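Structure ticket #2291
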Amino acid sequence: MSDRLFDQLRALNLPVGDYAVFGSGPLIVRGIVAVSNDLDIVCRGAAWDRACEIGEQEFLPEYDVTIASIFDGAISFGTKWGIGDFDVDELIDSAEILDALPFVRLEHVVSYKTARGSDKDKRHLKALAASSYP
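Resolution: structure written out below.
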């Protein structure tokens, strides 16, 4: 499933430097956690403009963010992250390129999953701690 999602994201040809995969995506691409049925993307500039052109916009009041979703919600884009205190520019500017896609650095993923603290996030943090990644 994630390969399909990553392929769909690559096919959008978004400008590198204007987006990064966040949420569980950086763990999935490294094989730390199982594949997911969706991807969360932080973006700005031309990447956000493109997401709004092709996606359906929705305001999520519980997170105070507007997202643009494509592929029936399989890929969601936002210009800010509704959980934790993150500078989207820093997330994107410091992203690591893996498999030709930019991914938010693991230390930011840890901060997000710690702040959110759901059972899923706790499982993901435990899997990361047991992995070979710092």
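Closing remark: Residues 9 and 71 are 10 Å apart (CA to CA).
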